[in-house]
Amino acid sequence: MSAGVNLDDWGPVHAVPTFHRARAGERTAPFGTRERPLPLIIDSDPGLDDALAIGLACASPEVRLLAVTTVGGNADVTRCTENALRLLHAYGRDDVPVAEGAAGALLGDVVRATEVHGVSGVGNTQLPASPNPARPEGAVALMARLLAESPEPVAIAPIGPLTNIALLLRAYPHLAPRIAHLCLMGGSIGEGNTTAAAEFNIVADPEAADVVFRSGVPITMIGLDVTHQALLDRSAARALRELGSESGRIAAELTDYALDRNLEWSGATTTAIHDAVAIAHLVVPDLVAVARYHVAVETGHGPARGRTVCDGLPYRLRRHGREPNADVGILIDRGRFERLLLDAYARLP
Ligand code: BDR
Ligand code: CA
Q: pLDDT class for 151, splitting at 50, 70, 90?
């Protein structure tokens, strides 16, 4: 299903893919409905926008949140795990298990984004303690158990570096068919954000991303091309605060912190809520327009390390004997996205 948006309006897209305009196509990602919620695991490094993404999932009857697993990324993994537990507690979802995963990349240096998210991962926001500890089995074993036990295939939304997902695919290859879809936030057809070439979640562990994109598991790549259109501003933060709830306070503070950082660095008065777009795509069938691409990850150690090389040009794919391996997000209706988030937070405690 293609998005109900004007595909000729490429204005907000910061880089137009290839010399032709990729046409939006049918999505391959499943989506949940109230009648048939999609079983979902979120693999995350909370994280300001991760926190908003988890809130959206908690409030959406279209998904059945089975677990939140954590990975080192925006902050150290122990902080990310604590944040995940506390966020779920604030969102009234102590029933959702949390398990800690990889502290850092498979190979190479540990990369953090504390300049964006603060050392805590959640800026200055105070999150009340959760009564729950993390599950002792760890992220990869928990994902494997849930995949094996679920009566139907499970969608995974990786919204941090892909280390845990690569480990899962390597340690339990027989469970790959139990993954209904990987709807991941990461990469970019165009420019990067952490480097000129690469987006944070991919450059934080390019080898893991390479394993994932070569795995054959159905993938949607929600990259910067689309997330840079999914913007909130001060009025959205105000609306979240005016909900008067604990979840609304948290979401408002996270958004304000992200807005402050963006203003400081670039003079922009908006902030992209990257990770929530991956969840939104699983909740609303026609919000994000996607096009099929072959995505390859640059794992060399030059300036393009972590780049997602996206080829959507049919004659070139034929020439190199390649098939598309991912839906790639290209367009989103910003107004609908903002309303989706605000409506979701209005349902949280
Ligand atoms: C991604 O990087 C992280 O800092 C965010 O949480 C998001 O997952 C955006 O590039
Ligand atoms: Ca993230």
A: very high
